[in-house]
TrEMBL record:
MF (Gene Ontology): ATP binding
Topological category with respect to the lipid bilayer: Peripheral membrane protein
InterPro entries from the UniProt entry: AAA+_ATPase (IPR003593), ABC_transporter-like_ATP-bd (IPR003439), ABC_transporter_ATP-binding (IPR050763), P-loop_NTPase (IPR027417)
Species of provenance: Curtobacterium salicis
Family under the similarity heading: Belongs to the ABC transporter superfamily.
Listed Gene3D superfamilies: P-loop containing nucleotide triphosphate hydrolases
Protein name from the UniProt record: ABC-2 type transport system ATP-binding protein
Pfam family, one: ABC_tran
Organism superkingdom: Bacteria
ABC transporter domain segment(s): 6-241
PANTHER family according to UniProt: ABC TRANSPORTER ATP-BINDING PROTEIN (PTHR42711), ABC TRANSPORTER ATP-BINDING PROTEIN NATA (PTHR42711:SF5)
Annotated localization: Cell membrane
Keyword line: Antibiotic resistance, ATP-binding, Nucleotide-binding, Transport
SUPFAM superfamilies: P-loop containing nucleoside triphosphate hydrolases
Length: 318
C-alpha cells in the first residue's frame, strides 16, 4: 500500500475543443495521505464532482496525472478501481428490483471477495450502516436515505485504500449522518485515505485533517481550518447581547478596522450580535460607551463555516 491514497498532479479537464472548450479544472494538485481525510470545499459548479470523477476513473484528465494508491489511474484504470470505493449518491448504481442484500452480494463478487468473506463482510456492513433487518427488501422500496446508506456499504465492501465521498450526507437523517461520521473515523484509523466533498462545513470541520477550496476549477486555498480563516482575514468571534442597537452605532461597529462581518439576531426584547473579525477582543466594545447597554459578552475562535464565508467574501471583493 502506498503512503498516498490519492495524488493529482497538474490535472486539467476541459470539455469541447478550441474556442468552444469549457475548462472544468485547471492545474489541480492535491493529495490524500493514507489514514487521513481531505475535505474539498467550494460552491456549486466549482469542479469538486469533476475532481472526484477523475480520481475514480469515471473521467480521464485532459492533462496531468492521477495516482490511486500508487497506481497510474489513466494507464491502469481497472487496477486503480480495485483500490478505491466511491459514493456519488443518488438512485443510480443499483438493481432496483433486487434486494439490498442481492445488490451487495453481486458487487462483492465483482470485487473478487470469496463467498465466505463476502457474507460476513456484508452482514457487518449492513449492521454498520443501519440496514440490518431491511436487507431483503427491494431497493426500489428504499427511501433516499436508505439508498445512500447502501451506497456507503457498497463503497467499502473490499476495504479500499481510497474512499471518495461526494456529498455523502445528502438524504441522510441525523442518525445516518452520525453513523457516516463514525464510519469515516473508523476507516481513517484503519489506514484508508478519504476524499470528502461537502457543503456541510461542520462535517468537514469535524472530519477533515486538511482542506482545499476549489473555485472556478482551481485550488484557491489549502491547509487547515485556521489557514482558511487567515486567508479570509478572520480568527475571532465576539458575541454580545444588548437591548438596543441604533443604526448609527451599528455603522460605527461595522466600520471598525478589525470587524469583517456583523450578524444580528433577535433575542427576547433585544438582540444577540456576532462580530466576526481578526484579533477581536471584548474590550473593543468599551469604545462605544453608553451607546451600547451590554448584558453579556463572550469571545471564541471562528468556526470553519465563518472562516469559509469570510474567505469567499474576500475573494469576491475586487
Amino acid at each position: 500500500m502506498s503512503t498516498k491514497a490519492l495524488e493529482l498532479v497538474g490535472v486539467e479537464r476541459w470539455f469541447g475543443h478550441g474556442s468552444d472548450a469549457v475548462h472544468a479544472l485547471r492545474s489541480v494538485d492535491l493529495e490524500v495521505p493514507a489514514g487521513s481525510v481531505l475535505g474539498v470545499l467550494g460552491p456549486n459548479g466549482a469542479g469538486k464532482t469533476t475532481t472526484v470523477k477523475m480520481a475514480s476513473t469515471l473521467l480521464e484528465p485532459s492533462r496531468g496525472s492521477v495516482l490511486v494508491d500508487g497506481i497510474d489511474a489513466v494507464r491502469h484504470p481497472r487496477a486503480a478501481r480495485a483500490r478505491l470505493g466511491l459514493v456519488l449518491g443518488g438512485d443510480r448504481g443499483f438493481y432496483l428490483r433486487a434486494s439490498g442484500l442481492e445488490n451487495l452480494r453481486f458487487f462483492a463478487t465483482l470485487a473478487g471477495l470469496s463467498h465466505r468473506h463476502a457474507e460476513s463482510r456484508i452482514a457487518e456492513l449492513l449492521d454498520r450502516v443501519g440496514l440490518a433487518g431491511r436487507e431483503r427488501q427491494r431497493v426500489e422500496t428504499y427511501s433516499r436515505g436508505m439508498r445512500q446508506r447502501l451506497h456507503l456499504a457498497r463503497a467499502v465492501l473490499a476495504a479500499p485504500a481510497l474512499l471518495l465521498l461526494d456529498e455523502p450526507s445528502i438524504g441522510l437523517d441525523p442518525e445516518g449522518t452520525r453513523d457516516l461520521r463514525e464510519l469515516v473515523r473508523e476507516l481513517r484509523a484503519s489506514g484508508c485515505g478519504i476524499l470528502l466533498t461537502t457543503h456541510q462545513l461542520q462535517e468537514a470541520d469535524e472530519l477533515a485533517d486538511a482542506l482545499v477550496v476549489i473555485d472556478h476549477g482551481r485550488v484557491v486555498s489549502r491547509g487547515s481550518a485556521s489557514d482558511i480563516a487567515a486567508a479570509g482575514g478572520v480568527d475571532t468571534v465576539v458575541t454580545f447581547a444588548t437591548r438596543e442597537l441604533l443604526p448609527a452605532t451599528r455603522a460605527r461597529i461595522e466600520a471598525h478596522p478589525h470587524v469583517v462581518d456583523l450578524d444580528v439576531r433577535p433575542r427576547g426584547n433585544g438582540h444577540e450580535i456576532d462580530l466576526v473579525g481578526c484579533g477581536l477582543d471584548t474590550d473593543l466594545l468599551r469604545a462605544f460607551g453608553s451607546e451600547l447597554r451590554i448584558d453579556w459578552v463572550t469571545r471564541r475562535p471562528v468556526t470553519l463555516e465563518e472562516a469559509y464565508l469570510a474567505f469567499v467574501a474576500r475573494r469576491g471583493t475586487p
